Amino acid sequence: MDRCDYIQEAEHQLSDERFYKKLDSDPTPQFNKEITTNLKSMCEQGHIDETTFKYLKPEKSKPGRYYLLPKIHKVNNPGRPIVSANDHPTEKISEFIDFHLRPHVENLPSYIQDTTHYLKKMESLNPLPPETILVSLDVTSLYTNIPHDDGIEACREVWNSRNTLHPPTECLIQLLTLVLKCNNFTFNGEHFLQVNGTAMGTKMAPSYANIFMGK
Length: 215
Description:
By secondary structure, the chain is of the alpha+beta class. The chain has helices spanning 3-14, 28-44, 50-56, 91-106, 115-125, 142-145, 148-160, 169-181, 205-214, and strands at 20-23, 64-70, 79-84, 184-187, 190-194.
């Protein structure tokens, strides 16, 4: 893709203040400190052990990196926004949240693992009534359009349904909120913060989106 067109498409998306906010400086050190403080508190209260604390604690953090995957099947090749979270302060806690969300995703009535799983589900429903119509649905820019409050509430419901509430739901909510609200990144030498939805590129995003859509 032509470099100028690529940058123009990215800047067009990043100018949408519903989803992104341009920053004057890099907030990574501040987010690093905030996450470490929360994890230390969880450890001191016995909600996570020392080994987990050391694993989740951010080290040598840096901002996320924003890039686009051009949708070559669509007119004018709009870009799918991705924020690489490698070495971001939230990288490990996002992985931790995903670990605690994934089992609930697999329990959703709507959950489909892959094509083979879908075909098996269809076989178990046969014979379908003659008037049945199969429909597929798509949500436009799902990840960036999930309101924080609604996404968090959906996760709270599934975590409260656990047989063993460890770590406590509110601790997981605290970490989830940090992933959503500390999502800073760079593009073309400038700093930004995502202010709505979640980013493709953070580990918990697919499970989070599935739990939201399941609700």
